[in-house]
Design a protein that fits this description.
Elements (H helix, E strand, L loop, with lengths): L2 H7 L10 E10 L2 E6 L4 E5 L15 E6 L7 E7 L2 H9 L5 H5 L2
Parallel strand pairs: 3-5
Antiparallel strand pairs: 1-2, 1-4, 2-3, 4-5
Amino acid sequence: MSKKEEGSRNEFPRPDESSVVCVVEKILGGDHFIAKCSDGKKRLTRIPGRLRRKMWIKERDVVLVAPWDMQSDTKADLLYKYSNNEVRKLVQEKLIPPELLEGA
């Protein structure tokens, strides 16, 4: 494996204009949960079918979500779940406000 491939393996998605970092507040069941987002909003978030059996979510997990086009203030889809090391890197890069993690 080349060094270029190793570097890309360590990469993880960062928030952009179409996604928001959130902390899971409450599990609702049925692959739905309430997430407190870095933009100050709480969104009902669902796990898409392609990720349902691959990704297990618990309260206080840090996740990346994509707000819906039509109801962007209230609903979103899960994109990625960050590991503890990835969360530390996001905080160091100032992509996550520390206040968001205080309740986590």
